[in-house]
Amino acid sequence: MNRNYLIFGILLPLLLLWGGTLLALFFLPETVPAHFGPGGLDRLGSKHELIGLPALATLAALLAFFKNPALRLAAALAVWIFAFAQGLVLALVFTHLDAAPRAPTPEETELGERVLKGILALGGLVTAGLGFALLKSPPEPNPYYGFRTRETLEDPEVWYPVNRFAGVALAAAGLVGAASALLLPGLYAAGVLVLAVLLATLASYVHAKRLAKEKR
């Protein structure tokens, strides 16, 4: 693993993230602002909830130990994004320590639901677009873009059909996710989109394994 990548891509943001969070926990009271909705602060909670983002960043950092360059890049980006997000969260917490939470109005609740459903619909359409792109013109074998497994990267005769299959699966998953955002409540639609993408990924992985086995 490249030393500069390890230091500046992984260790530095993790150090800033955990160091800033632990320092904040030392000074914060036990109960702090825990959630901000469309109308502002709407929930108080334990200060230890602030450990969530550093924990997720640490899990994301594990991707750095894979040999795939795309996964390593994703690890560094994710850790830095979590670090910046935690900085914003801590700033909100410290500036709202004296604020009292209030229940959101029906209008604010409806606005939040619409925003969530809009984001999910957009995410579904983007996923479908990526799927159609893979189906129509799958890229040449590469470690950055496409459905990349050991089987697909080792054999072009596996790479192209598997990427077309993954394109169909992702396009279907994206369209299902976008439709669910229009027909279902936001949280249910989020679950449908995530489940659809996971099933598409799993189906593509199984297809790659089966096709590679047939080629042997």
Molecular structure report:
- By secondary structure, the chain is mainly alpha-helical.
- The protein folds into two domains: 3-95; 106-215, no CATH class.
- Helices cover 72% and strands 6% of the residues.
- It contains seven helices and two strands.
- It has helices at residues 3-27, 52-61, 69-95, 106-136, 150-154, 156-183, 186-215; strands at residues 31-37, 40-46.
- Strands 1-2 form a two-stranded antiparallel sheet.
- α1 (3-27) runs antiparallel to α2, α1 packs parallel to α3 and α6 runs antiparallel to α7 (186-215).
- The mean pLDDT is 87.
Short account of what is shown:
With 216 residues, this protein is mostly helical.
Topology:
Layout: H1 3-27, E1 31-37, E2 40-46, H2 52-61, H3 69-95, H4 106-136, H5 150-154, H6 156-183, H7 186-215
Antiparallel strand pairs: 1-2
Helix pairs in contact: 1-2, 1-3, 2-3, 4-6, 4-7, 6-7
Largest sheet: 2 strands, antiparallel
3D shape? flat
Strand order of the largest sheet: 1-2
Distance between the termini: 32 Å
Protein traits:
single chain; 216 residues; flat
